Prior knowledge:
The complex is a heterodimer. Chain A is built from four helices and 31 strands. Chain A is 5% helix and 32% strand. The longest helix of chain A has 9 residues, at 189-197. By secondary structure, chain B is an alpha/beta fold. Chain B is built from ten helices and 14 strands. Chain B has helices at 12-24, 38-47, 74-83, 114-126, 140-148, 166-170, 176-186, 213-227, 247-250, 259-265; strands at residues 3-7, 28-32, 54-55, 58-59, 63-65, 70-72, 100-105, 130-135, 154-158, 192-198, 200-202, 208-210, 234-238, 273-274. In chain B, the strands form four sheets. Chain B has a six-stranded parallel β-sheet, covered by helices on one side. A four-stranded mixed β-sheet of chain B has the order 2-1-5-6. In chain B, helix 1 runs parallel beside helix 3 (74-83). The N and C termini of chain B lie far apart (44 Å).
Amino acid sequence: MGHPTIYPTGTTLYNPEKAFNGYTIFQAAEYGAMLINMNGKEVKVWKGLHGFPNKMLPGGYVMGSRGARDTRYGYQDNVDLVQVDWDGNVVWEFDKYEFIEDPGNEPRWMARQHHDYQREGNPVGYYVPGMDPKVDGGNTLILAHKNVYNKKISDKRLLDDTIIEVDWEGNIVWEWCCNEHFDELGFSEAAKNVLFRDPNMHDCGGGMGDWMHINSMSVLGPNKWYDQGDERFHPDNIIWDARESNIIAIISKKTGKIVWKIGPDYDVCKELRKMGVIIGQHHAHMIPKGLPGEGNILVYDNGGWAGYGLPSQTSPYGTKAQRRDHSRVLEIDPITLKIVWQHTPTEAGYLQPFHSHHFYSPFISSAQRLPNGNTFITEGSGGRLMEVTADHELVWEYISPYWGKKFKLNMIYRAYRLPYEWVPQLDKPEEVAIERIDVTTFRMPGAAPLGCDDIVEVEGTLGYGDVDGFCVTTEEAPAVNKDDEDDEYSGVIRI
Amino acid sequence: MDITIYTATGCARCKIVKGFMEERGISYVEKDMKADGKDDFQAFYKANRSAVFRGPEGIEFPIIYDGENIRQSIGAALAFLHAGKKLDGFFTVGTLHKEWVNGIHVSGGDPRYAEEFLYILRYLKDKNMKLQLETTGKNSGVLKQVLDEGLADVMIMDVLGPEHLYSRLAGEEIDIEDIKASLGLIQSFPEYKIRTVIAPVIREDGSVSYLTPEEIALTAKLIGEGSGSNKLPYMLKAFEPKEAQNPEFRKLEPIVNLLPYRSKARTYQVFADIEK
């Protein structure tokens, strides 16, 4: 999102009639887990509770971490994962994944959790009617890190992504390690070559390659595809996405093998060419049963820079090989690979490509399907949360007023909307509509109002006609037949 | 002693064994299975198939044969040439390549012949070989001598199980203090690791069952007590029923999920992990 110097924060727009009204939980940068109501009133802060991300559970519980590992030795490792009650008491915790002895730090167990986790009872970590996560028992799936060597991938030390299942007592009962499935990922020889030489190296801990950077992990849960007999979509199976490789995949919980995948290459079939390359994506998950769009894959396709491939003028070494300067939220049918709904700069009302960057977060971000069919979007880099209807009307918007002092962004990794009843400690708040302000007349104190007192006509002027592009062509050209199934260039929109 | 040595063209280990025999004045006949000795070796292998180890990468050379005894690989061959059957148990067929020699078992042989055992290790080291040794903890006195003379480049200690099951798992009476003494030495080797195979146990009532996660926790505790450290590189390995000698063990289903074992082991050894 391109920001002017001065702009409002907090809730900027709110239509109570069309929004899915409830609370919103997010990590206020370098402050804590923040719960706000629809008007942006801060109703609770769990100060110091990190959230990568924070998630609410019914009963006023919040999940998060008590801190992060020393960044000189680890990359995005949270020390633990905890469940905290309304009063800040830790009622569940896990840290026994790896015993860490970082120089200058007290040796301790760490969860090395990052980016995601799921509590049993709910597949995706957000509100689904009839699928409440357990609050006093059940297993928890955790996305974690482990350092490994795998010479098939690279001669460098790798920061591997793992998924572990932990029971209520803290025992690890299941583990999946991404590097052990390298052969299933479908990298081209060009990508393998780049990956071997530079698996997205970070300096910390003497150097480690964050080669996949899995940033989302959730369970499929009950779904119509499995009900129809498609074993790939077994309710226990797990979907994840990896921003560095542009891969979205489903793994079998039983065998660990990849059973469904798109990426890393999006030119391998007509359907994917039509979809267009997904770049640096976040929060790919299956819309749970009972929500509009159930069974489809919802993903925040960031754009930005990601992927391994052939060197080019914008990627001299073949790293971050794909690039795009705007984002898309895509809802994909996993069988036909068709985009069945999308929210791109065009649907958001920004003229493409001229203002595409007004819907853009090159990292973090998410999309949540709400029970009324709306979609709750975290456009993370600029700290903007928004709710749009199925026909793209913006019905709620909020800008985080919390800028980090160490990491100077007001970013929000991932926010969630939750129903009022998940927080029984609070009375339902008043919902006050906030009309979209007319920015053409909105002025700062001291600024002159709109309009000129001295207007003169110029003789011979032609007036202003239609403009078909200005220096660059628009995304809509050339014309295609959207109804032609065989036209791989047809589709909802091509980007 | 008339020895037939089966070799492969270019096999450095074969040259070392031939050199050993020449030094000792032992007469031998060489059959190079990649040259003129191919037919002879095939006939020998056909007649002695069960006595010759064939791994996934083929047959390990050299093989020596005195008309009655067969010894395969460099360590076992030298040991037999030096001390006859006295060193049986200390050496088995190795599987490592280039300069590395394994299949050397500190606990496998009779400690009365420690000096003969050490002689072979010294001989191998003099020939610039690197040695990976294994121990179950038995013969800690021999292990101490190996350590003191710097004869092991890598030491792997297989801790069979918890104290109360150790003799049962070893199939012989074991002095647990001997095991603890070995554990006390293990960290002094240049490179080492400790591991436990989650093995089946014949219980007191005659039933057969795998070591339990709780018993692995006690195993990790034993390691901590013996070594004085809870931070050792401790690996857990699944038992492979197909390779078991005991027919009862071959009937077992392999353990698929070692995670409960790892969780329990980490109670006493924080770096415990699963060997894959």
